[in-house]
Amino acid sequence: MARVRLEHVTKRYDDVVAVDDMNVEIEDGEFVCLVGPSGCGKSTTMETIAGLTRPSEGTVYIGDTDVTNLAPKDRGVAMVFQNIALFPHMDVFDNVSFGLRLRTFDDDEVERRVEQAADIVQLEGMLDRMPDEMSGGQRQRVAIARAIVRNPDVFLMDEPLANLDAKLRVHMRTELQRLHRELETTIIYVTHDQAEAMTMSDRIAVINAGELQQIDPPLVCYNEPANLFVAGFIGSPSMNFVRGEVVADGLETKNFTLEFDPAGATGVGVGDDVTLGVRPEDVHLSRDADDLSRPTKGVEVTTDVLEPMGDEIFVYLVLDEGAERTMEEDPLDSPDQLLMSVSPDTDISEDETLEVVLDGSKIHLFDTASGEALVHGIADRSGSDPGTAPTEAED
Ligand SMILES: Nc1ncnc2c1ncn2[C@@H]1O[C@H](COP(=O)(O)OP(=O)(O)OP(=O)(O)O)[C@@H](O)[C@H]1O
């Protein structure tokens, strides 16, 4: 077990800044997922910790040791990659014990460690199987066992489940959580799968363009995103964004006005150019919103496309009937639309004109220019709750 600390780590490849002044501290025994768009620097961060690449600047600590210039084998880390490279001509026992034999452990110790690892990943009874006699999930467990026998201080896992089918991923997800609970080892885990990050992590580190945007527990990233990037990246479907200007009695956007007391919302001032963020599940039909604690004023909309998902219906709402109807990938580019999620038994159809309300307690305001979060949750004019001031994002 060990703490991992990156201090001002930057990695450049010619003109490309793959990791940009990263400062992060991962606690002993913590499970941290690195997430972010393709090319944001997740793998480079992992390789820097593993010692597979040297940072251009900065220092990497494992425990209290500066490992920046140590070889991978001397860092006490074990990596599990997406592409499982098992030796096809060796059975499970030999695949798992390969690294130990290189390090000249005696036969009894090798056997003890392999059996213990096989027990943890539930491969007992399969030690004489060949890789081509196993399923993808079983092969992935062999790869994890191979990492476990080394008894590392830190596991580095780079999309280890990416090649498995959806059902197996869910199964392996719970196995990894169990593994973490049993071993109590620090795990740093790269994934593109938000469900994996939300369910397994103690904290999620959100990275964009080589820069750490936020590192917090999953629900804090979801409910109190530090900036527009995190707000748009965490959660699927994405948060709705609508640009507006703060006025004396609320917020004026192109298509509607929200009434609240800006004086009660810390960090927001009249005349500010802000972006309102609201998740699809926090947009409600006015007729169903009686019990909302602080509903904002109703907004007239027309329903466009409906997407029944089984457990919910996604409803695309048009705010401005005159505006061209396009479904932009970037929600900031579609100010005339909102996405709403309603329960599957809702009586709703396409091309219906109705009124929706945004749950004031779930509205986020961001500074449009810097993207920084200003406030999470606004009170309506009768309310007294000033909302939550955002916590400082770590740099
Ligand atoms: N060996 C290399 N030489 C040059 N550029 C590289 C090298 N490795 C990575 N990069 C660049 O550094 C940036 C970060 O890459 P990295 O693989 O760390 O991203 P990532 O977040 O892991 O992406 P993905 O999710 O697609 O795996 C990218 O622009 C990539 O093209």
Automatic annotation (TrEMBL):
<dbReference type="InterPro" id="IPR047641">
    <property type="entry name" value="ABC_transpr_MalK/UgpC-like"/>
</dbReference>
<dbReference type="InterPro" id="IPR003593">
    <property type="entry name" value="AAA+_ATPase"/>
</dbReference>
<comment type="function">
    <text>Part of the ABC transporter complex XacGHIJK involved in the uptake of xylose and arabinose. Responsible for energy coupling to the transport system.</text>
</comment>
<keyword id="KW-0067">ATP-binding</keyword>
<comment type="similarity">
    <text>Belongs to the ABC transporter superfamily. Carbohydrate uptake transporter-1 (CUT1) (TC 3.A.1.1) family.</text>
</comment>
<dbReference type="GO" id="GO:0005524">
    <property type="term" value="F:ATP binding"/>
</dbReference>
<dbReference type="Pfam" id="PF17912">
    <property type="entry name" value="OB_MalK"/>
</dbReference>
<keyword id="KW-0547">Nucleotide-binding</keyword>
<dbReference type="Pfam" id="PF00005">
    <property type="entry name" value="ABC_tran"/>
</dbReference>
<keyword id="KW-0813">Transport</keyword>
<dbReference type="InterPro" id="IPR003439">
    <property type="entry name" value="ABC_transporter-like_ATP-bd"/>
</dbReference>
<dbReference type="GO" id="GO:0008643">
    <property type="term" value="P:carbohydrate transport"/>
</dbReference>
<dbReference type="InterPro" id="IPR040582">
    <property type="entry name" value="OB_MalK-like"/>
</dbReference>
<dbReference type="InterPro" id="IPR015855">
    <property type="entry name" value="ABC_transpr_MalK-like"/>
</dbReference>
<dbReference type="InterPro" id="IPR017871">
    <property type="entry name" value="ABC_transporter-like_CS"/>
</dbReference>
<comment type="subunit">
    <text>The complex is composed of two ATP-binding proteins (XacJ and XacK), two transmembrane proteins (XacH and XacI) and a solute-binding protein (XacG).</text>
</comment>
<dbReference type="InterPro" id="IPR027417">
    <property type="entry name" value="P-loop_NTPase"/>
</dbReference>
<dbReference type="InterPro" id="IPR012340">
    <property type="entry name" value="NA-bd_OB-fold"/>
</dbReference>
<dbReference type="GO" id="GO:0140359">
    <property type="term" value="F:ABC-type transporter activity"/>
</dbReference>
<dbReference type="GO" id="GO:0016887">
    <property type="term" value="F:ATP hydrolysis activity"/>
</dbReference>
<dbReference type="GO" id="GO:0055052">
    <property type="term" value="C:ATP-binding cassette (ABC) transporter complex, substrate-binding subunit-containing"/>
</dbReference>
<dbReference type="InterPro" id="IPR008995">
    <property type="entry name" value="Mo/tungstate-bd_C_term_dom"/>
</dbReference>
<feature type="domain" description="ABC transporter">
    <location>
        <begin position="4"/>
        <end position="234"/>
    </location>
</feature>
<protein>
    <recommendedName>
        <fullName>ABC-type D-xylose/L-arabinose transporter</fullName>
        <ecNumber>7.5.2.13</ecNumber>
    </recommendedName>
</protein>
